[in-house]
């Protein structure tokens, strides 16, 4: 594949097929002059200034979007794949998702009017493609937010010793998450992302130390013989294997959520630095923490993983991680709501004015999407399966196929007459990347649905809106 840092120089600006009522069309003259007339949020007197995010703060936001869900879910699926294939999956998916994030950013550099992947779809495929991608974007982050609700309700259950019904904890979690998500600007929730990130990091460190000090895993039989279940190479069924792979993939796949953050950065050209810092740390952390936890716990890993070191450590870890879990869910709701908000009020004075229409639209988007996430969290209350489902059904096309499609769209000249072998090879690899996303979407969705049905039939899940804690954090 082509080099990520230099790809923007090689992209060509394709001519627009016609005017759009929703987004402007940037020209090469605009790009050369450095003007930001096509940016969604303008910087002007009398307007709410949304563009206040530095690249360091953007990196923190990206870290928080990725770190919590991945580190809580990856250890529990290592058993299915085995340590070595699991590690290869982890590094490979993180690298591919980092590349996709850079492709998205490069495309936006050429088309600064794009606030989301839906706007990019409008430019490359027309209004029908925009509606399809926009709907998928909303569904993606609504489902991901439901995983945040599950994580927060598991924390409340652990801290309260199951003092009330899990559904009530889920409802409480939804209200708290929606309240935090209602903050309008990414820069205003920037300090929350630092608090959330370090709280999750500290909690995971505590769990890692906790599991290594035990003679046997906390949720394994404490007397008599038992099988640890540690394998260098696992032998899963297709359904279990692709579900595990999808769970690892989704841990770093929220790259489509990076785009709305770019629109609020002071210098959007600093975006690649934020991506490289974020994904480098995420890959190293995932690899170290998940392999250590899997080595000491084997098959006896809770999901989320914070419950793997015994009741006392579990309560301490959840208490420390609670702010991070809340912030994660809030970011997912915020990203989805910001897309709807911009879509509804774009080219209206209410987009950057403190009017009742502005605030009413924003709060309706936030609390409406949070309510949908609550329903999904109660319908599929197993943390790992929710992540695998959203990874397969939504993130696979958004994080794999769609960036590859943008690259192919912008590099059609790589397949023309007289083109060298290397360029044709690179073009072909991106076409294969589109196919990989389709395979993960179809195969992964099938695998996770099989796993969910088996969980219901075996009694692992009691039922929809059950009071039992099915998060897996035993």
UniProtKB/TrEMBL annotation:
The keyword Mitochondrion does not apply. One of its GO terms (cellular component) is membrane. InterPro entries: AA_transpt_TM. It comes from the Eukaryota. Coiled coil: none annotated. It is found in: Membrane. It is a multi-pass membrane protein. Residues 52-449 form the Amino acid transporter transmembrane domain. Pfam families: Aa_trans (PF01490). The chain crosses the membrane at residues 61-78, 90-111, 132-155, 167-184, 191-211, 238-262, 274-296, 316-341, 362-383, 389-408, 429-449. One of its GO terms (molecular function) is L-amino acid transmembrane transporter activity. Keywords: Membrane, Transmembrane, Transmembrane helix. Residues 1-27 are annotated as: Disordered. Gene3D superfamilies: Amino acid/polyamine transporter I (1.20.1740.10). Belongs to the amino acid/polyamine transporter 2 family. This is Amino acid transporter transmembrane domain-containing protein. The lineage of its organism: Eukaryota, Fungi, Dikarya, Ascomycota, Pezizomycotina.
